[in-house]
Amino acid sequence: MSNRIFVALDTPDLARAKALATRVRHHVGGLKLGLEFFAAHGQAGVREMATLDLPIFLDLKLHDIPNTVAKAVQALGSLAPAILTVHAAGGRAMLEDAKAAAPSGTKVVAVTMLTSLDAQDLAATGVAGSAHDQVSRLADLARQAGVDGIVCSGDEVAAARQAWPGGFLVVPGVRPAGGAIGDQKRVVTPRAAIDRGASILIVGRPITQADDPDAAARAIAGTL
Ligand SMILES: O=C(O)c1cc(=O)[nH]c(=O)n1[C@@H]1O[C@H](COP(=O)(O)O)[C@@H](O)[C@H]1O
């Protein structure tokens, strides 16, 4: 994949998602559609965005019992997204069944610890230890379950790459130097994430909220 930026089109507005994607399409490697978009437009919306001819990252972060997740993945199968997310915390059987239910061309990646959380948030959910420990543990689980990779922050991606040389490692929560952080807590620059071993980067607001999204995407791609 020559351009490793997937732009997160986090909007419930289909026309806006299409307009944004059309503007930035030559400066990104793919489009990420998440819960906000899917809740508003469902599979028809995803098909509509697929007409732009860029790989689709369908970020639904599925997390339920194995049977329910497998049936959901099956129901999404005809969309054949390039990448599909599930939560690693759903456990080994859920991850195995999600992978088994996915089309062969779809990479299933497991979200480890959301980039909007820090060690204090983790402790509040009853998990002791550092973000690093939590990501390592869930990355091992994901690898053993046979999914294609994980989602983690740029703080943990170097260790994840060392532990999983062939893993497809997705890093969201990236910000150009000095960029507004918003609700993210574990952020690094796009360049640092790539240098530390990220396979692809997810970039939302630094592109979509920019006055000139096209220029913002080009500028970020230019730092890689
Ligand atoms: O799975 C994800 O894509 C994801 C995982 C995570 O830990 N943190 C995270 O921010 N994301 C997604 O990455 C995107 C980040 O958006 P920005 O913060 O606007 O760049 C959003 O679409 C999130 O849903």
From TrEMBL:
- Residue ranges annotated as transmembrane are none
What are the Orotidine 5'-phosphate decarboxylase domain coordinates in residue numbering? 4-220
Q: Which UniProt keywords apply?
A: Decarboxylase, Lyase, Pyrimidine biosynthesis
Q: Its Gene Ontology molecular function terms?
A: orotidine-5'-phosphate decarboxylase activity
- Which pathway does it serve? Pyrimidine metabolism; UMP biosynthesis via de novo pathway; UMP from orotate: step 2/2
Q: What class of enzyme is it?
A: lyase
- What Enzyme Commission number does this protein have? 4.1.1.23
Where is substrate annotated to bind? 10, 32, 59-68, 115, 175, 184, 204-205
Q: Does Endoplasmic reticulum show up as a keyword for this record?
A: no
Biological process (GO), any one = 'de novo' UMP biosynthetic process
Q: Identify which residues the record assigns to the active site.
A: 59, 61, 64
Question: What does UniProt give as GO cellular component?
Answer: cytosol
Per its record, the protein catalyses: orotidine 5'-phosphate + H(+) = UMP + CO2
Q: What function does the entry list?
A: Catalyzes the decarboxylation of orotidine 5'-monophosphate (OMP) to uridine 5'-monophosphate (UMP).
On assembly, the entry states: Homodimer.
Q: Which family does it belong to?
A: Belongs to the OMP decarboxylase family. Type 1 subfamily.
What name does the UniProt record give this protein?
Orotidine 5'-phosphate decarboxylase
Q: Which organism is it from?
A: Sphingomonas rubra
Gene name per UniProt: pyrF
